[in-house]
Sequence to fold (106 residues):
Amino acid sequence: MRHFCDAWIEEWCEANGWTDLFMERLNYYWAFPPGAVMPEPIPGKILRAIKMEKGLCEEEKAWLTAAVAVSALAIGSAFLLRNPMPVVLAFAFDAVTAGRLEMEEI
Fold:
């Protein structure tokens, strides 16, 4: 799952003189620092600061909305069907969603 919006990282790069931003792999951004001839990874401390300032990206918001919707639907289905299985399935979906929302060590 993407934890950063590319526009956030581009905005930081422009403000700090980094150029030619590219994403090596998911959530790992590289760019050329001012005066450098080789790209370097954008420091994890900077990425965490951007994340704290900006909050959730659109993909994270979509997953959270889906988790809430699935949970609400499961509660209603469990009540109507008088069966706990929809709630169990919703719990499994919510657990996977919570795991995906965790940011790996940057």
